[in-house]
Amino acid sequence: MASRQGGSGDAEPLGPGSTDRRTASTAAPAAPDTRQGDSGARSRPGVPPRRRSRSQPHPDRSRTSGATETQRDAVARTPEDPPLRDPGLYALTDHFRERLEQPGRYVSTRTVSDAIRRGQLRWNRTDGWRFAMVDGGIRFVVVVGDTETNSPVVVTGWTEVADREAALDAPRWDAVDVDTIAVRAALSESASTPIPDRIRPRVVTRPFEVGDHRLETTSGDPFVRCTACGCRFRSKEAITSRRCRDREAGR
User: Fold this and answer.
1) 8 Å CB contact between 156 and 164
2) What's the confidence (pLDDT) of residue 30?
3) Which residues contact 215 (CB under 8 A, 6 or more apart)?
4) Which residues of 175-214 are buried (b: 16+ CB within 10 A; e: fewer)?
5) Residue 70, beta-bridge partner list
6) Hey, is 22 helix, strand or coil?
7) Which residues pair with 139 in a beta bridge?
8) Residue 142: predicted pLDDT
9) SS3 at position 90
10) Is the pLDDT of residue 52 over 50?
11) What is the 3-state secondary structure (H, E, C) of 133-193?
């Protein structure tokens, strides 16, 4: 079955709370109040905060682990400690929640949860950590931050084509899905660089969103075209630096 662009997919609990820059996912259960247990330990005179040995690898934790176990893991963590693999502990930033609603993103709360549970773990280039997993020839990348605190957060996420032939053979995707993911990833790799040769072989007939524009392309065209205003673009910087007049007028 072909994939449907946009939407958050099947709901998956993701996150214990919200702040001005992060919001809890839909139907998320309340997570244990780890701050209470933490402060209780420090209130007793002569008892130092409990710390996990830096030399001991951090074990995976499932949501079925007890509250006491989750509280113990959240105490005295550092940015260098591998993040916890319990999706229920993670909140979502507003930026990421907006991405869940955009056509052509192909990232859902379920894929985020799967990546946190079983994805390969790497240090992110800028800050924090990233989880990555390949499913049906497509790589899902999830970036998390604030992992040293009791309120870790999913910062952003995206998709890449890991194996084009495997993706085309997978029932989850059709050719338009695969080309959409390829074009979006190519535009993001170097935002200021025109990439006509990487756009030209692709066919995207279901528009995907970048900035204000809804974009598509046909085989042989060295550009993506906005279906609303008709503007043509060869780089992501050109797309994001120009407002879509037709969509803006319709608001």
Assistant:
1) no
2) 36
3) 183, 204, 207, 208, 209, 224, 225, 226, 227, 233, 239
4) ebbbbbbbbbbbbeeeeeebbeebbeebbbebbbbbbbbb
5) none
6) strand
7) 134, 160
8) 96
9) coil
10) no
11) EEECCEEEEEEEECCCCCCCEEEEEEEEECCHHHHHHCCCCCHHHHHHHHHHHHHHHCCCC
C-alpha to C-alpha distance for 214 and 85, rounded to whole angstroms: 35
- For residue 27, what are its two tokens? 């139907």
Q: What is the distance between the alpha carbons of residues 47 and 51, in angstroms, rounded to a whole number? A: 12
**Average model confidence (pLDDT) across the chain:** 78
Report pLDDT digits (tens) over 170-212: 999 999 999 999 999 999 999 999 999 999 999 999 999 999 9
Sheet holding 204-210, edge to edge: 204-210, 213-217, 224-226, 232-233
Contact 90, 154 (CB under 8 A): yes
Residue 55 pLDDT exceeds 50: no
Whole-model pTM: value is: 0.71
Give, as one character, the DSSP assignment of residue 88. Answer: G
User: Looking up tokens 């693999």, which residue turns up?
Assistant: 85
Q: Residue 36: pLDDT above 80? A: no
Quick one: how many helices (H) and strands (E) in the chain? 9, 10
* Distance from the first to the final alpha carbon of the chain: 34
